[in-house]
Amino acid sequence: MQYLLDTSVYPREPEPLKELRQATAKLPNACFGTSPDAGQLMAMLLKLGNAKKTIEVGVFTGYSLLLTALAIPHDGKIMAIDRDRTTYEIGLPIIQKAGVEHKIDYIESPALPVLDNLLGEPKNEADFDFAFVDADKGNYWNYHERLMKLVKIGGIVVYDNTLWGGTVAKPEEVVPENKRELRRHAVEFNKLVSADPRVEISHASIGDGIIICRRIC
Ligand code: SAH
Ligand code: CA
C-alpha cells in the first residue's frame, strides 16, 4: 500500500487535494476523507466517462468534491449534498483557491429528500453523468433506486465504504459490536446491487472498498 501511494498516487496528487487532505488529517473524523488512491481512480472514471454533471452525497471537508471539481470541465456542475456544512467550511478556502468553486452547487440538507425533489421534475431524469455516494450507509439502496433514474444510461454511480473495514467478509460474531449495524447494511447493499440487472458493476478493493456501477438500462 505504501509503495503504491509513494510511487503512483502522492507524486501525482494535485496540490490543492494534498492541501485539503493535510487540513483534514488534523480533524477527529479524518478517516472520513476519501483515500487518495481511491480518489485517483474516481478522477480517472470521471474523465473516461466525460462526466460534466454530477451528484455527491456526503461532502465532509470536500476531498472527493474537490477531486471531482478538478476532473470535470470548466462548465461542469456538481450538486454536493451534506446535512452539515461546518466541515465543508474547512475545505472551502482551498476549493476557492483552486478556482473551481463555481462548479459546485452546495446543498446543506439530508440527501434523500433532495434526490426526491429532483425526481419531482421530469427534466432531471437521466440528466446526470456521475454520482458518488458516501454518507448515510443505511440508505444506500434508497439512493441507488433514485440514482437509477437521475443518472443517464451509460452513467456511473460509485458507492464508498462497501468493505466496511473488511468486516463484510467476517462472521458477525468476530466484528466489534459498534461496527455490526453498518456491516449489516453494507452486506445487504452489496448483495442487492450485485443482483441488480440495471447495472454492470466492479467491486474494487481500494480504499475502504468502492462499488462502481454503470447504468445499462
Ligand atoms: N466524501 C467525503 C467524506 C464524506 S463523510 C470525503 O471525501 O471527504 C460522510 C458525510 O456525510 C459527513 O460529512 C456527514 O455530515 C454526511 N451525512 C451523513 N448523513 C447524511 C445524510 N443523511 N444526508 C447528507 N449527508 C449526510
Ligand atoms: Ca467514505
From TrEMBL:
> What PANTHER family does this protein's entry cite?
CAFFEOYL-COA O-METHYLTRANSFERASE-LIKE, O-METHYLTRANSFERASE-RELATED
Task: Provide the organism lineage as a comma list.
Answer: Eukaryota, Viridiplantae, Streptophyta, Embryophyta, Tracheophyta
Protein name, entry field: Putative flavone 3'-O-methyltransferase
Q: Tell me which UniProt keywords the record has, alphabetically.
A: Methyltransferase, S-adenosyl-L-methionine, Transferase
Determine if Transferase is one of this entry's keywords: yes
Family (UniProt): Belongs to the class I-like SAM-binding methyltransferase superfamily. Cation-dependent O-methyltransferase family.
Signal peptide per UniProt = none
Q: What class of enzyme is it?
A: transferase
Under Pfam families, the record lists:
Methyltransf_3
Q: What is its EC number?
A: 2.1.1.42
GO terms classed as biological process: methylation
Any GO MF annotation of the entry: flavone 3'-O-methyltransferase activity
Function according to Swiss-Prot or TrEMBL: Methylates caffeoyl-CoA to feruloyl-CoA and 5-hydroxyferuloyl-CoA to sinapoyl-CoA. Plays a role in the synthesis of feruloylated polysaccharides. Involved in the reinforcement of the plant cell wall. Also involved in the responding to wounding or pathogen challenge by the increased formation of cell wall-bound ferulic acid polymers.
